[in-house]
Amino acid sequence: MARILVVDGEDGARDACCEGLRSDGHVVIAAGKAAEALEAVRQQVPDLVVIDVGPPCKDGLGIVGELFALGREMRIVLHTAHMLYKDDFRSWLADAYVLKSGDTTALRDAVRDVLARSRRGRAEARHEVTTAA
């Protein structure tokens, strides 16, 4: 499946996300702070990053640009309990915006959808290159 980085300052929420994504067959790395997340990405760029953009991970939107600078192929899912971040222009860089819930189904569905769209996009790009040659 995919290599996914989960960034969430709340231990319980982070653990629940990681557990749900692992049960879907993904390799999951966890980070509690933006600095940890950036270091993990520098070591190995994941396929997708799930970021809690609300408190206590207040710098979630702030690192979106930094993540893109480290790996443009990486997909981003914003995961928050706060709708107010959806209007922030930095959130537009994300591939999905999911409201937090005690049930990780919506997050897991969004991750599955983003990864499927990403794979289709890569396949179409490869097809365009091979047919153009």
Walkthrough of the structure:
By secondary structure, the protein is α/β, with parallel strands linked by helices. Helices cover 44% and strands 18% of the residues. The protein has helices at residues 11-23, 34-43, 64-70, 105-132; strands spanning 3-7, 27-31, 48-51, 75-80, 96-99. The radius of gyration is 15 Å and the shape is globular.
CATH class: Alpha Beta
Query: Which strand-content bin applies to the residues?
Result: 15-25%
Number of domains: 1
* Tally of strands: 5
Structural Rg:
15 Å
Name the helix and strand elements from N-terminus to C-terminus, one letter apiece: EHEHEHEEH
The biggest beta sheet reads: 5 strands, parallel
CATH architecture: 3-Layer(aba) Sandwich
In spatial order, strands of the major sheet run: 2-1-3-4-5
| Helical amount | 40-55%
What is the number of helical segments per DSSP (H or I, 4+ residues)?
Answer: 4
Structure class: alpha/beta
**CA(first)-CA(last) distance:** 30 Å
What global shape is seen? Answer: globular
Brief overview:
This protein has four helices and five strands.
Write the topology of this structure.
Layout: E1 3-7, H1 11-23, E2 27-31, H2 34-43, E3 48-51, H3 64-70, E4 75-80, E5 96-99, H4 105-132
Parallel strand pairs: 1-2, 1-3, 3-4, 4-5
Please tag this protein with its features.
133 residues; alpha/beta; Rossmann fold; five-stranded parallel sheet; 5 strands; 18% strand; globular
